[in-house]
Amino acid sequence: MRRSEFAIKDKKQIEEILHSISYGTLALAKENKPYSIPVNFVYEDGVIYFHGAKKGRKKEYMLHNSLASFSVVEPFSMIQSYFSSNDGLACPATHFFRSIICDGVVEIVEDYDTKVKALQLLMEKLQSEGSFKHLSEDVYDKMINATEVFRFEIKEMSGKVKLGQHLPKERYEMVLEHLQKRGSALDQVTIQQMKENR
After folding, report:
1. What residues form DSSP beta bridges with 40?
2. What is the sign of the dihedral through the CA atoms of 80, 85, 89 and 92?
3. 4 has pLDDT over 90
4. Is position 39 within any domain?
5. Which phi and psi angles does 159 have, rounded to 5°?
């Protein structure tokens, strides 16, 4: 893929994707040994917050090396090879998506009020309908003190979108036709996104 065709240049769009996706993959390294783990997260003002246990491999790696990478993927429809080509080759098969990669520094949040804020933001994202007591209430003190909250400060951020915008008109319309025929809920979302990104 040629990066310029697929790069998301609008920071606002990158941030919208980070706000909309529920979990991402945190990549850490210790003594040239990689470790990646999926985490629920919340994004605010150039910072990603997530939580975890007071002890464990994730924390051990972070304490050894605070440099980290974080990625999220928003998957759209799988595009079978025959959706855009009649030559019978496998090569045209692909998967449409939007993705974000962030590089930065991760640290443990020590301040109690910041932990409350981060966990409150996370709950508001994951349970947007509410129906839970605010995390500043005393009933949460013990649980918050027993939970580690991590702050990932983003130093670099980039996004990529692949929704058929690079296809010639004939192949693009062929993909649309196949998606409409297959007609799943995800295909309908993909069609809409394809048109918005054309």
Report:
1. 23
2. negative
3. no
4. yes
5. -130, 155
Of the CA atoms within 13 Å of residue 130, those in its CB half-sphere come to 3
The angle subtended at Cα 106 by Cα 147 and Cα 159, nearest 5°, is 115
Please count the other Cβ atoms lying within 10 Å of the Cβ belonging to residue 124.
15
* DSSP string of 112-125, one letter each residue: HHHHHHHHHHHHHH
Q: What tens digit of pLDDT does each residue of 125-181 get? A: 999 999 999 999 999 999 999 999 999 999 999 999 999 999 999 999 999 999 999
Beta strands at 23-30 and 33-40: parallel, antiparallel or unpaired: antiparallel
CATH number at residue 153: 2.30.110.10
The model's pTM = 0.90
Distance (Å, whole) CA 51 – CA 174: 44
